[in-house]
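Justification of resources, computational component.

The compute hours requested in this renewal are based largely on the per-chain cost of generating structure records like the one below. Each record pairs the submitted sequence with a full structure-token output. That output is archived, and it is also reused by downstream analysis tasks.
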Amino acid sequence: MKHIRLISIFLALVLVFSAVSCATTKEFVPNDNDIVVLFSNDVHCGIEGSIGYAGLVSYRDSLKAETPYIVTVDCGDAVQGEVIGTVSKGEYIVDIMNKCGYDIAVLGNHEFDYGMPQLAKLVAKADYTYLAANLHFSGKNETFLGDTKPYVIKEFGNKKVAFIGLETPDSITSSTPSYFQEDGVYVYTFDTCRDGSLLKTVQTNVNAARKAGADYVILMTHLGDEAVASGSTSLAVIAGTEGVDAVLDGHAHSVIPCQKVANKNGEDVILCSTGTKFENLGKLTIAADGTITSELVSGWEGKDAATAAFIADIQASYEAAMKEVVATIDAGFSISRADGSRAVRNSETAIGNMCADAYRTLAGTDIAFVNGGGIRADLPKGDVTYEDIIKVHPFGNQLTAVKTTGRQILDCLELACKNTQKEGSANGKALGESGGFQSVSGLKFTLDTSVASSVVLDDNGSFVSVSGARRVQDVQVQKDGQWVALDPDATYTLASHNYMIKDGGDGFTMFQGDELLIDAGTLDYQVLLTYITDTLGGKLADKYSAPEGRIIIK
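The structure output for this chain reads:
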């Protein structure tokens, strides 16, 4: 799979507007025109990326001279990732997608980040249809799912195309677990490949769509092609089903112009994914003769004026406040290595140390943790704006602190380092990365990667226990200015945010039920801003010039 991925990335960089030699043909009566599916995935509020929403509309308009049969879809994680999403809780992005004339979308794990009531507002606000075939609700409160469908069928001339939408089951831990619960009980559940229910759901909907007259079936998935806790990947779904013609995928940020994957009968299914933040635009074409091809469009410079103006008006409504300089710092910080891989998700970093210190300082606790998935952007040297700070911590999580035991802290570190490898990256890609990898403050440890992880997780990917040898060793905490061994039976105070401590985010359930010292207080980006300005006075270079050995990986 690795060599296929490398070839795909190379092709995405060098091919502009050209179809990869990757096609399947259906033996149907020819249609009178081609059918074109334009798609985005993992835009993460990158509204003006390489293509951007205005570029999407411009490119789509350019196709109208060739065919009237064009549909525009999104494969999830559109509403979160930058300031425009944070300040509006996703609503500005839905407004833009409405303006662009999207037809269909699926929910990425980050569509859940603003909570279920807000998600209900977003789904109701959308002029397009959200699909959610593998998400179910068993609670008593109101739900947004009544406004979603498992699939839709679009008619193009004498042909019908079915679109089936799938969400990643790992949303439960990669978003906020408590959002999926009522009174501590999970009422939103996902079909998964782990128990086989996802394959059954897909096949049931494929069969229903075919029975309803669909000539082609396309899966819109936010699953990704990389291994995940639930086992639910786009590759696994293709391999375990039949009757699917193509899969448009998101979640892993993979760049896949066109890849053939065999289904359960050995028949080729096309898999395509655009990357992230509009670095490419996906284009799936069902030709008039039944041939299906996919490609990635990059380098398109046209912009639709009306869409661009609409976006500019939205930006102007919050831009002045965001551009205000709130600090001046004497050093810059990156979340990545020189090769571009995301270091905050599998190693100690200077920016991670600073963010963790901010939590510990403001909370006044013994220890602090900050998850790598919650540190999202670099921080520039010099003038720092409110926007810069929010980009680092865009989720709006809240400072939370508890009394906990040394054993729970050890369990947390073991889960955080479950996937970590000795080598942090290769070929520009982070290895063994996890959004739950923790930057630490008031604590240091050694990770022995030769020890296999013995962390036990439940079906939702949440922590259960450590069943064998531990990878995390020689854990020390600061006491009276000295480093001493952490005592599993002792009590410590711990700061992080509500996402991890209260809500069990990234599977960290070990702190739920602990005595709360701070219950969802200051917002995450305000914690960082206060630490930089009030505690350090912008003088960061001496303290955070480089990682200092808090995490040793061997």
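The longest strand covers residues 159-167. The chain has two domains: 2-317, 323-553.
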